[in-house]
Amino acid sequence: MSSSYDVLVLGGAGVDTIVYVPELPLPYADSYKIRPGIETRAGQTGDFVALGTSSLGLRTHHIDLLGDDEAGDLVRAFHRDRGIELTEVRQPAGTKRAVNLVGPDGRRLSLYDDTRSQESDRLPEDLVRKLAAASRHAHVSITYPCAFALPLLHEAGLTVSTDLHDWDGENPYHEPFAYGSDVVFVSSTALSDPVATMRRVLERGRAEAVVATAGADGSYLLTRAGGDPLHVPAVAPRGPVVDSNGAGDAYAAGFLFGRLSGEPPERCALYGAVAGAHACTVPATASEAVDRATLLAEVAALS
């Protein structure tokens, strides 16, 4: 029986307030006058992965906790306007929020409101099982509800991916995600020894592939085939770099598109690099992902 969805995205729905600053780190001052200004828009990691996979033609469904608030309305509109199916579970604490400081070079500093996430948060098991049974693959955000959903996804026989973001390789909170996923993405930013961490994820978990992203230095791919990590150079963006927000999510979406299309891991990493480069040309206040035709054309030009 064919699946209704190619990708089930769990968690990571929320709202960001974008603040453009003259430099990062931002020196202390009593006040700053900033341009282009301050804007609040829907879109956190789960939203952007769902946007990326959907834009690439993958049938995508997103499930997360949302509040009955204005922020939740923005998230609901984000999905509705882009035709991305959304299952929401009511969150009494409200919709997750963050403030992103964005410098002139596109670098970002994120401040997350941790009061909107509780250790007791759960996604209803019957809902997860129902959606998992209708899906080919699940991408889980590193939020409390998703950790408890992992066994249900394994039980359903789904392959699973996750993004550990700026994990330091030691924080035990990330381990259920790192060792319970078939494809693991992680930023190399906080890793003292990225290769050792990648090898440990492969040795201790179920991962078939681990990707360490390194910004302008590209990414590194390690699989169960062994050997040293494969360096995948960054792809030059087709336009000016204006913001790195969402580049990692776009990379993950591109990689998953390749994987679900039957491509080998190194080809998937190239898809991810192209998608991530495109995301860097999109202002933080906008929400746009590369489409399938553009991605395939750019990959063909690089091959």
Automatic annotation (TrEMBL):
All copies of domain Carbohydrate kinase PfkB, residue ranges: 201-287
Transferase in keyword set: yes
Gene Ontology molecular function: kinase activity
Keywords: Kinase, Transferase
A Pfam family recorded for this sequence: PfkB
Name by which UniProt lists this protein: Adenosine kinase
The organism of origin for this protein: Streptomyces hydrogenans
